[in-house]
Amino acid sequence: MGSSISPLITMDRKPAYADESFRSIRTQLDFLSVPSPIKTVLVTSAVAESGKSFVAANLAMVMAQSGRDVILLDADLRRPQLHSIFQCSQSPGLTTAISKPTLIEEILHETPVSQLKIVPSGPLPPNPVELLASAKARDTLDQLSQHANLVILDCAPAIAVTDPILLSRYVDGVLYIVRPGHNSRKADRRAIELLTQVHARILGVVINGMRNEAEPVYPLAY
Ligand SMILES: Nc1ncnc2c1ncn2[C@@H]1O[C@H](COP(=O)(O)OP(=O)(O)O)[C@@H](O)[C@H]1O
Ligand SMILES: [Mg+2]
After folding, report:
1. Is 7 within a domain?
2. CA–CA separation, 7 and 1 (whole Å)
3. pTM value?
């Protein structure tokens, strides 16, 4: 499904329905940012292939196109995708900054939208959980949030690994992605349960890839 659509639908082909859906997520995030601003948002779902990277990338584009400085961080150290979507190199990236002294500017990669920067995963480590749990990871996230109005973290799936659960404690909120028909409701319930157990603030659920006659594929937030 959707193989004919570029992952960056908000940049090239711009089907109105898709653009509008991402704008509506943006508007809802703006509402949720009152009274205290949401500066760090983690994107996760129950399993792989739900569209986490797709939603994170397009939302980041829409946010940056509206004048915010946005950093999109590839925190999926199992199956990183942002460097492919944005066609930049995978390193230096997040793991570089965590594992050795690195200036934050070194891991920020340019994109076609001037206000959007990507931090790719960096080289994949054998021990992602230990790396992401480190004080240096938290420090890197803090530094990134000082460099932008919004940092979006594209994460691994919440049921498969503990990375997103762990990272959810460091962010202002979580955007949870559901792709209808892709996994069981039980899996979604379990993922939400794991997130709420660590008191993650779930900002909303994005239903990704719903189909109907008039609008072939679109994400929708509620
Ligand atoms: N709403 C959508 N419309 C079209 N293609 C989509 C949509 N959501 C995801 N895809 C595609 O489905 C595949 C899996 O999505 P991806 O974002 O990589 O999932 P995840 O990051 O959750 O593993 C990718 O090829 C992506 O471009
Ligand atoms: Mg992904």
Report:
1. no
2. 12
3. 0.91
Range of the domain at 194: 22-211
Give the gyration radius of the chain's Cα atoms: 16
56 CA closest ligand 1 atom index: 17
Question: What distance lies between CA 57 and its chain's CA centroid?
Answer: 7
Q: How many CB atoms lie within 10 A of CB 115?
A: 18
Q: pLDDT tens-digit profile of 154-203?
A: 999 999 899 999 999 999 999 999 999 999 999 999 999 999 999 999 99
Strands 218-221 and 202-210: antiparallel
Q: Of ligand 1's atoms, which has the minimum distance to the CA of residue 50? A: 22
Kindly report the CATH number assigned to the domain that includes residue 60: 3.40.50.300
For atom 1 of ligand 1, the residue with the nearest CA is 209
Q: Tell the residue number behind the tokens 């066609």, with chain if given.
A: 87
Tokens standing for residue 199: 């008191």
Among 192, 208, 213, residue whose Cα is nearest residue 222: 208
Structure tokens at 153: 């973290």
Q: Other CB atoms closer than 10 Å to residue 113's CB: what's the count?
A: 18
CA–CA separation, 215 and 211 (whole Å): 6
**Beta carbons of 93 and 120 less than 8 angstroms apart:** yes
pLDDT band at 142 (very low <50, low <70, confident <90, very high): very high
Within a domain: residue 2? no
Determine, yes or no, domain membership for 221. no
pLDDT of residue 149: 96
Ligand 1 binding pocket mutation candidate from 1, 54, 163, 179 (most atoms within 8 A of CB): 54
